[in-house]
Write a structure and sequence with these properties.
The chain is mainly alpha-helical and 169 residues long. Helices cover 52% and strands 12% of the residues. Strand 3, helix 4 and strand 4 form a beta-alpha-beta unit.
Length: 169
């Protein structure tokens, strides 16, 4: 989270509007440090924390946003990324397995190193400078890429594999 907040601050310094919503419970007890960071970086009302959003509130928030960002250093399955893509959000994430198997940089998402370097910040600025048409195209590409993981597409594959396995028994 601290990296995402740093990147939001850099984007704001470059003149981009920042409306960062951080969802989820503070299981690691980092909230005091994160709030201090937001204060120090003068992000004020640009960052909001929501420990829990029900489905209706989450859908409403997703409809108001165009980007989903995660700086996670470890990712098991990447389900949150696929869900964000299915919602039509442009995903910004690290170039790492399994996330880079879901996203095509510049087409259905955006990959950063999250190393705080100027080239990384410039790549973020490049995305944030995109036209509405480009963002719309990326959103459509994200939805299409996520479609491969839709239950209607994924379940028949699982059923086929189970049937094959049962025939071998």
């Amino acid at each position: 989270m601290d990296l995402i907040i740093d990147y939001a601050a850099d984007a704001r310094r470059r003149g981009f509007p920042v409306d960062l919503l951080i969802c989820g419970q503070d299981v690691d007890g980092l909230m005091p440090e994160l709030r201090a960071q937001i204060e120090r970086l003068q992000l004020g009302d640009s960052v909001r924390f929501e420990p829990f959003l029900d489905d209706t509130a989450l859908r409403s928030e997703l409809a108001e946003r165009s980007v989903y960002i995660t700086a996670s250093e470890h990712e098991g399955f990447g389900l949150s990324v696929v869900e964000a893509m299915a919602a039509g959000l442009v995903v910004i994430c690290r170039d790492m397995v399994p996330l880079n198997s879901f996203i095509e940089h510049g087409n259905s998402g955006w990959m950063l190193q999250f190393d705080g370097s100027e080239p990384d910040m410039q790549r973020l600025a490049q995305l944030l400078s995109s036209t509405e048409k480009k963002i719309s195209m990326m959103s459509d590409a994200a939805r299409q890429a996520a479609g491969a993981y839709d239950w209607d597409s994924a379940v028949p594959k699982f059923v086929r594999h189970y049937r094959d396995a049962l025939q071998e028994v």
